[in-house]
Design brief:
Layout (H helix, E strand, L loop, with lengths): L2 H19 L6 H17 L6 H7 L6 H15 L13 H19 L3 H14 L4 H13 L3 H14 L4 H14 L2 H14 L4 H24 L20 H5 L2 H13 L1 H7 L1 H13 L5 H6 L1 H10 L11 H6 L2 H11 L9 H4 L3
């Protein structure tokens, strides 16, 4: 008798053992399988209790049911006759487990464990690969982790599954924004707003991307000598701008730089707890602090009065204090920072489903 025939017989006996062991068949059915195992063993001349024979003939760690699943999957992809009997999708138990992995991923997003969240969403997708939400959530986690191309791929997959999934466009826009592809981000946000016109967060993100394109265009014109100064429209401000060239040529700014470098003010600035907190917030959230909020913060203003080395009654000698109290700069802060912070993010991308 050919060895492969005996291997198939051994696989059948092992499968029947498994069916009894995992409770798939119980009671009288289990007793019937025991009889069937003995009959198959005798007919094909195999002994499942023989370690040498088992080592030679067994399919372990594979099993007959797993081999059959692979066959059905292959037939389904090829359109073969077995495709008619293939399961139409993940089982209820698979979907339930996938939802548990998704929930775990959501919790890890909140905890800012983005790599852990990516792993959990990946496990969910391995069980259920037809959910736009799973791919959309993983895209958000990829973006937070700085893996922007992976985020683009997942967002596109989510939209392939559900073209009406507005958050898919939001996640796609965020990923493109992170890559610096602002035109593509604008296109994605616009498509998302077609699906969800009332989404103010996505509208704000769109304006941020548009501001980046406008700023880059202004900078290019200035560099080519076609404009005297670069202007930048603030997201959500409805227009307006400031003269960046004049700001950089502001004597107060130049005096501040010279003073801070000369008297150690820069070192004190970087060691200031208020500045450290701003830096920590940026690392954790990815969002730039609002200049308007900085100017209204008493700790920041106190730092401004002291970082340049000035003393009470001599604030005019402190260039940083003078700069932060400059009405032109205050106006610029209100125009430029009153709306979105310009990082392409929105509420849709800060929450997972």
């Amino acid at each position: 008798m050919q060895a492969n025939t005996k291997r198939l017989a051994m696989a059948i006996v092992e499968y029947l053992d498994k069916a009894v062991a995992d409770g798939s068949v119980a009671g009288d059915g289990a007793e019937s399988l025991e009889v069937a195992k003995q009959c198959i063993s005798d007919a094909f001349g195999i002994d499942p209790e023989d370690e040498i024979q088992t080592k030679e003939l067994s399919l372990k760690p594979f099993s007959l049911d797993k081999v059959f699943d692979v066959y059905l999957s292959t037939q389904a992809k090829l359109g073969g006759p077995a495709a008619q009997t293939t399961n139409s999708g993940p089982s209820d138990s698979d979907r339930k487990l996938a939802d548990e992995f998704k929930a775990k991923g959501n919790a890890l997003i909140v905890a800012k464990d983005y790599k852990g969240a990516i792993d959990s969403y990946t496990r969910a997708i391995a069980l259920v690969n037809d959910s736009a939400v799973y791919f959309g959530n993983r895209a958000a986690a990829y973006s937070q982790n700085g893996d922007h191309q992976e985020a683009v791929d997942d967002a596109k997959k989510a939209l392939d599954i559900d073209p009406a999934y507005s958050k898919g466009y939001s996640r796609l826009g965020l990923a493109y924004f992170g890559m610096g592809n602002f035109e593509e981000a604008i296109a994605a946000y616009k498509k998302g707003l077609e699906q969800d016109p009332a989404n103010k967060a996505m509208q704000s993100a769109l304006e941020s991307a548009q501001a980046k394109v406008a700023s880059a265009s202004s900078t290019a014109r200035s560099a080519g000598g076609t404009a005297a100064a670069a202007t930048s429209a603030a997201p959500g401000s409805g227009g307006g701008g400031f003269d960046l060239g004049s700001l950089m040529n502001n004597p107060a700014l130049m005096n501040m730089a010279q003073s801070m470098m000369a008297n150690g003010g820069l070192e004190r600035l970087m060691n200031n707890p208020a500045v450290s907190q701003l830096a920590s917030n940026y690392r954790n959230t990815g969002q730039m602090p609002s200049m308007a909020d900085m100017m209204s913060n008493p700790d920041i203003m106190d730092m401004a009065r002291n970082v340049g080395g000035s003393s009470a009654g001599n604030e005019g000698a402190n260039p940083l204090a003078a700069l932060l109290n400059n009405p032109d700069l205050a106006g610029m802060a209100q125009r430029f920072m009153s709306g979105s912070q310009g990082n392409g993010s929105d509420e849709d991308n800060s929450r997972s489903e």
